[in-house]
Design goal:
Elements lengths: L5 E5 L4 H12 L3 E6 L14 E4 L5 H7 L5 E4 L9 H19 L2 E6 L11 E2 L10 H15 L7 E5 L2 E3 L7 H6 L8 E4 L6 E6 H12 L8 E5 L3 E4 H12 L4 E4 L2 H7 L4 H8 L2 H4 L3 E2 L2 H7 L7 H11 L12
Helix pairs in contact: 1-6, 2-3, 3-4, 7-12, 8-9
């Protein structure tokens, strides 16, 4: 029988769940992946996962899959921002019930939606959470429920980051906003002013931060919260990095927000994206000093290297693509 610690990853076929599952495997964990479909992802870095067919909305499935686990990673999200209010609270309650039964620590990836103007531009783990959007309010409620569960004996870890991107990421502002996923890199679409900084998280780095914190279990409080700083760059800095990765100057165009506003009454996904426009117009950065003080350093792949790996993985660049000096 294996003596490796067990981690249940809910959403292991998704962007952040897959990255965390791969990072846990690399550190010697036995990883269980809960997946509704019997089909398994064709990813070499996930070949060591024990796949369990089950539904993240079914409390019994999570309870059974979490038996013997030290960690429950809740990385499942309804696609495209849809149905957060309907599904997220139920999934959280299922995770809490499973954690009570197994003694596992719940790990939740956080984002910057929780914060409003009173916390900007530099957000710490103790900044006030007064969100300006519906999705932000949902995230605040979820994290409060998780923190409150510490009084019920449930340990938790929230690690906050900016917008995800990576070679195996699914929906992403980088590959579905700035560039066109699966298409040759010829132009970029800029969603906001070029002089405003935006916070990004390269998924392999973010996953390594999470796994590094998990490894420090004995030093973590019952309800732990950390910020992963990631890449905090202006629109111009990102555009110039994409030019370097492409090896040439790319055409630039502005995201047609006006067209989005016209379509919003009829298309839910467009409405949800429009609600997040403020994150491209206001600077929201994450203070990672607490994480650095705990881990010693934050995993950090150079931006150009991370972008090139992402664009190759997403079918926007060939593996032979040169980078401009």
């Amino acid at each position: 029988m294996s003596t490796r610690p067990i981690a249940l990853v809910i959403g292991a076929t998704g962007s952040i769940g897959g990255a965390v599952a791969a990072a846990l495997l690399a550190e010697g964990w036995h990883v269980r992946g809960l997946n509704r479909s019997p089909n398994r992802p064709d990813r070499p870095d996930l070949r060591g996962v024990e796949w369990i067919t089950g539904d993240a909305m079914n409390p019994g499935d999570i309870l059974a899959a979490a038996q013997g686990a030290k960690v429950i990673f809740q990385g499942a999200n309804p696609p495209g921002y849809a149905n957060w209010a309907r599904f997220q609270p139920g999934m959280m309650e299922s995770c809490i019930a499973a954690a009570k039964a197994s003694g596992a620590r719940i790990v939740l990836p956080g984002n910057v939606y929780n914060y409003g103007p009173d916390a900007w531009p530099l957000v710490s783990e103790t900044s006030p959470q007064n969100p300006r959007t519906r999705k932000g309010a949902i995230r605040v409620t979820l994290e409060k429920r998780l923190a409150d569960a510490s009084s019920e004996g449930v340990r938790s870890l929230v690690v906050r980051a900016g917008d995800f991107f990576g070679p195996a990421s699914g929906s992403s502002w980088l590959t579905e906003g700035w560039v066109a996923k699966g298409k040759p890199l010829k132009a970029i679409t800029v969603p906001g002013p070029l002089d405003v900084a935006h916070t990004w998280a390269y998924l392999p780095d973010f996953a390594r931060s999470i796994v590094g914190l998990i490894a420090m279990e004995a030093a973590l409080p019952s309800a732990a919260v950390f910020n992963h700083g990631g890449h905090q760059v202006t629109g111009l800095e990102l555009a110039e990095a994409l030019d370097r990765v492409a090896g040439r100057k790319l055409a630039r165009r502005n995201l047609p927000w006006f067209a989005f506003s016209l379509a919003a009454p009829f298309v839910e996904m467009v409405r949800e994206m429009l609600e997040m426009r403020y994150l491209w117009e206001k600077e929201v950065r994450l203070d990672n000093s607490k994480l650095v003080g705990t881990l010693g350093s934050e995993p950090h792949t150079p931006l150009d290297v991370a972008l090139k790996a992402t664009l190759i993985g997403q079918g926007c660049l060939g593996t032979e693509a040169p980078m401009a000096a």
